[in-house]
Amino acid sequence: MKAKSLIILSICAVLPLMAYADKKKKGQDAPAPVEEETSIVTEDCIMYTSLFHESAKNKQYADAFEPWMAVYKTCPGYSKNVYADGVKILSWKISQYQPGTAEYKEWRDMLMTLYDKRIKYFGNDAKYPTAWILGQKGLDYCAFFSEDALKETAYPWLKESVEKQGSGSQIKVVSKLSEVSLGLYKSNPDKYAEQYIADYQMCVDALGAMANDPNNKNASAAQSYRDNLEQVFAASGAADCSKLDELYAKVVADNSQNLEMLNKIMGLYRRVGCIESDIYFAAAESAHKLAPTAESAAGCAGMSKKKGDWQGAVEYYDQATDLAETNEDKAEYQYRAAYLLYDKVKSYPQSRAYLRKSLEYNPEQGRCYILMGILYASSTPYSKEEYGAKAAILNKTVFWAAVDKFNKAKQVEPSCAEEASKLVSTYAKYFPTKEERFDLPNEFSGSTFTVGGWIGETTTIR
Predict the structure, then answer these.
(1) Distance CA 273, CA 308 (A)
(2) C-beta of residue 39 within 8 angstroms of C-beta of residue 78
(3) Greatest CA span in the chain, whole angstroms?
(4) Torsion angle defined by CA atoms of residues 311, 312, 315 and 321, in that order, rounded to the nearest 10 degrees
(5) 56, 94 contact by CB (below 8 A)
(6) Counting CB atoms within 10 angstroms of each CB, which of 95, 200, 287, 445 has the fewest?
(7) CB–CB of 340/346 below 8 Å?
(8) What is the pLDDT of residue 297?
(9) CA atoms of 360 and 343, how far apart (whole Å)
(10) What does pTM read for this prediction?
């Protein structure tokens, strides 16, 4: 009785293959509708799986096709190879026909059904779950459904895949989601702007996590894709600061206690260069109250500047410096404070103190020496009340000290050479003349001169 049952099961397993072979003889090379099936694993299923898997591995898809079809129809829940190899086999089958033909469309539709059945039988797989499968389905839809210009059908599959896979997503799935989302946005900016921005944020977060993972072998590629994605977003038009403000004003207000959301919004504004926005400042202020960071402190500094609170801005830059993790960032925040003290407060000694601190963190900053030179050139340390008629000549010595700093800028950072050279040419015209120096023999008796007042720099007489 047992032997008889096995024979019956074997016959049932072979029937789909026989039926397909019969159809092929009659010239009916098209996929039969896939009905709701009960997956029965037989010895023939095992045998045919071995056959098609070996052929598929060797890219002999024509040989793999018939045994694969038999297993797909009879025991679709037997092995993941039915689907991993099935994608390759059906992709080959599709390639045998011209796009637009009935056969091409029928086989590509079967490929979409293949993904649905894989979700049904193997959607809970630990390594390749439903979200991963949807990503592959979305990629193949985009590849084979060229008449769907916007690929809107594939959008929810790709989005769910990246949402759930996160940094475990395939780079090509993340890239395709961003591409499709951008296409939808361009087709109707008013309708899809918010969606596109949210998708962009999700994609750069996923790629950023991959890029920063030292164990990810694709980290370099992820960073490259992330950089490209940022450039595309910046050029898309969706990155307009006023448009971002419209979308995120309420989000920031509603999430004043949600640090993760605030940091994401700040990151978005920073990447697209909207760090002078009131919404960015509001996000930074709320984030700074919850968990101060260098970025939130810098954002609060920007808010203080906009309000005209210059000293408050300097204090926030000091906080940002203390919170920053790299010397490069510390140097940046000290330089910003220095420039503010020069430009708005007109406190030149204090500005120089911050420039010197910035140089301690990063000595190769030509900009610091250029600004220091400008500070000197803008100063008149000798007062007429104290020095009388000599003051006019002595105050020209600041240009010696200034030119020293411009030349130093060229030395530490060659990329500053053009700007520094122009400044040298400009201010060298104002050096004390020989006649003026002759009129003050006691002050200019040697080869060097120490500029007085707050400057206190020793320079060469020239």
Answers:
(1) 21
(2) yes
(3) 128
(4) -110
(5) no
(6) 445
(7) no
(8) 95
(9) 22
(10) 0.63
8 A C-beta contact, residue 232 and residue 178: yes
Contact 176, 139 (CB under 8 A): yes
Buried b (16+ CB within 10 A) or exposed e, 283-295: bbbbbbeeebbbb
Helix axes 171-187, 155-165, angle to 10 degrees: 130
Closest CA to 409 of 442, 436, 375, 380: 375
Helical axes 278-290 vs 259-271, angle rounded to 10°: 140
Residue 158's alpha-carbon distances to 124, 165, 430, in angstroms, are 18, 10, 66
Strand partners, 449: 459
What is the per-residue pLDDT across 285-339, written as a single tens digit (0 to 9) for each?
A: 999 999 999 999 999 999 999 999 999 999 999 999 999 999 999 999 999 999 9
Is the C-alpha dihedral spanning 400, 402, 405, 406 positive or negative? negative
Which among 201, 208, 323 is positioned nearest to 262, based on CA atoms? 201
Length of the chain: 462
Alpha-carbon radius of gyration of the chain: 35
Token look-up 């020209």 returns: 396
Under DSSP, the state recorded for 450 is E
Q: Cβ distance 379 to 398 under 8 Å? A: yes
Q: What SS3 class is residue 240?
A: coil
User: In one letter, which amino acid is 300?
Assistant: C
Helices 259-271 and 241-254: crossing angle in degrees, nearest 10, is: 170
What DSSP assignment string belongs to 117-147?
HHHHHHTT-SSS-HHHHHHHHHHHHHHH-TT
Give 442: exposed, middle or buried? Use CB within 10 Å, 0-12, 13-18, 19+.
exposed
Could you read off the pLDDT of 402-453 as tens digits, one per residue? 999 999 999 999 999 999 999 999 999 999 999 999 989 888 988 999 999 9
Whether the Cβ atoms of residue 459 and residue 401 lie closer than 8 Å to each other = yes
CB half-sphere exposure, 461, CA atoms < 13 A: 17
Q: Give the amino acid at 3.
A: A
Nearest-angstrom CA–CA distance, 311 and 168:
46
SS3 category, 66: helix
What are the structure tokens assigned to 212, written together?
């920063």
DSSP letters, 371-437, are HHHHHHHT---S-HHHHTTHHHHHGGGHHHHHHHHHHHHHHH-GGGHHHHHHHHHHHHTTSPPHHHH
pLDDT the model gives residue 38: 53
Distance, CA of 241 to CA of 277 (rounded, Å) = 7
Q: In angstroms, rounded to a whole number, what is the distance separating the alpha carbons of residues 372 and 335? A: 11
